[in-house]
Amino acid sequence: MILNKNKQKQKLIIFVLILLSPDIIRYSSLHTNKDKYNNLIKVAFYCDKIKYGGVERVVALLINFLSNENNFSLYLITNKGLLEGEYIIPNNTKRIFLYDNRRNLIRAIRIHKIDILIYNTYVRKEIKKLNKLKNTKIIYYNHSSFLYWIYNKIYNFEKSIYYIYRNCNYVISLIPLENDYLFKQWGINSIFMDNPTTFNYDLITPSDLSQKIIIMVGRAEDPIKRYDIGIKAMSNIIKEIPESEMKIISESNVKYQNLINSLFLEKKVKFIGFQKNIDVYLKNASLHILPSLSEAYPMILGETKIFGIPSILCGLDYLALAKEGTIIIYDDNPDTIAKEAIHILKDDEFRKKLGNAARKSMERHKNNLVVKKWVKLLLAVYKGNIETFRQLQNSDLYNHLSQEDAENILFNQLGLLKKRIPQLSKITLEQLKSYSLN
User: Fold this and answer.
1) Which helix (H) or strand (E) is 116 found in, with range?
2) Span 118-138, pLDDT tens digits
């Protein structure tokens, strides 16, 4: 009788605990079974979700590629639970859901004894806490650029994410200007990495560039993308090339759709909607326009290059893939874009020359090279092999940026900042280099 009463009390306690802390039941299913990969390095990727976005696509690709390696047991930690339309990841990837309760991140890391966490967001307080972990090494994957933060009104170093990065052992940079030049001045220990691409270079047949199809790709609701510039350029392009058309691979946007209607471009500019697989649009395109205010490593630039498609960029000369097969303009005038687009679409020889250069440039950025470097990075971090990490930092997989080239790029970006942000019209090059704009 006493035994039964004790059992009833235990059940009641468990029931109350579940009511008070719903996360207990959410975690229970994630660590009841002993990990059969105990001898492998436990590598976890952390991001908000795993659908609809460049960062999410990069994470999904890396998990898929690394799942073919023999050294790692892979985890994916997300703030959101399972969502419809997620990017596909291997079934043996262990999922951990925080359900918008970020404070459980460190708890999850400890419960699952994660060896390496690859952190894909920018919460300063969270980073400070993660840096205090003793048994888990953190790689901070910086998917942004310092110019992005400036355009979002973070005007000095102390308030930026980079101030926190100074105290981080491992930071991944996607931008040579930052990795090779700025970060060294700012005291940030970083390594340059390429992002993987969706397509296998050797299995892709390039576009024949015969159709006058222009594409813009990315989330239209992000104001950084500035699709209005490309849409306005179409007004002039169709005057010279009536058969040309523009496809925007994104969910529709009311503001942009109203602009299209006001310019009577309904038959020439169309939103395709969000697409997981965009190869059907790339294989017939002849030109890619990237009018973004800032980028870090836009996947679409690498993907269009793999298909041999020329690109027009608005001032994005600091990107790792900015050269070869691209035209860079240093103003935000739709007429300038239209002029370059007309030249490319009308001149078959010039268009093919740009397309060939674009595709050839991607031989140095093939996925197998990216994955090989990732494996070396993870093993070096896990073993604490500083010498291997330094060798990777000085890798010859890409040409490191010279000081002269860095200064030229910064001078170009200084001019654009002055035009785009009136309150920064008097900043100097030294202020920009030191990230001290006010």
Assistant:
1) strand 116-119
2) 999 999 999 999 999 999 999
